[in-house]
Amino acid sequence: MRALIQRVTQASVTVEGQTVGEIGPGLLVFVCAMQGDQAPQCATLAAKISKLRIFKDANGKMNRSLVDMGGGALIVSQFTLAADTSRGNRPGFSSAASPDDGRVLYERFVAEMKALGVMTATGSFGADMAVGLINDGPVTIWIDG
After folding, report:
1. How far apart are CA 127 and CA 60, in angstroms?
2. Any idea what DSSP says for residue 96?
3. Is 44 a catalytic residue?
4. pTM (predicted TM-score)
5. Angle value at C-alpha 50, between 24 and 41, nearest 5 degrees
6. CA dihedral sign of residues 63, 8, 134, 79
7. Per-residue exposure over 84-118, b if at least 16 CB sit within 10 Å of its own CB, e if not
8. Are 77 and 32 in contact, with CB atoms under 8 Å apart?
9. Which of 66, 89, 81, 67 is nearest to 7 (CA)?
């Protein structure tokens, strides 16, 4: 599984003019299932993201996790995180999981985040989505897990 996370003060996803998911302070999590990924990777990635100490403590140091601060996670499927740009100018996406496998793993990842006590909102798997956010910091981190 691959994820790009952004610390946000707020984020939302709109599909066909309707807001389908939104959060206040927390993390915007773009997630991509890769070929060969299985359920254990979902649990590992969810645990890592929920415990990553990237939120400020009382002294202004990044020392608190999403769970510590009680923030939300807006989880958006994004197969383009599997982009291979090593050849030419057109990215290849063959390392991404198939759409059917990707959906199952995405839903499993969302369930794992919920099981860890994280308030979650989601986009719509496979939809053309408009994502709005206010990046806090900015803090943006790439995770392969």
Report:
1. 38
2. B
3. no
4. 0.95
5. 125
6. positive
7. eeeeeeeeeeeebbeeebbebbbebbbebbeebeb
8. yes
9. 66
Catalytic residue among 6, 41, 78, 120: 78
Instruction: Kindly compute the dihedral angle of the four CA atoms of residues 136, 52, 130, 100, in this order, to the nearest 10 degrees.
Output: 170
Catalytic, out of 30, 55, 79, 109: 79
The helix (H) or strand (E) run that includes residue 47 is helix 39-51
Under a CB-based contact definition with an 8 Å cutoff, are residues 1 and 109 in contact? yes
pLDDT tens digit string along 51-104? 999 999 999 999 999 999 999 999 999 999 999 999 999 999 999 999 999 999
Q: Which domains does the chain have, with CATH numbers?
A: 2-130 (3.50.80.10)
- Residue 79 known to be catalytic: yes
DSSP state of 120: E
Active site residue 78: yes
DSSP secondary-structure letter at 80? Answer: G
Catalytic site residue from 19, 35, 38, 80: 80
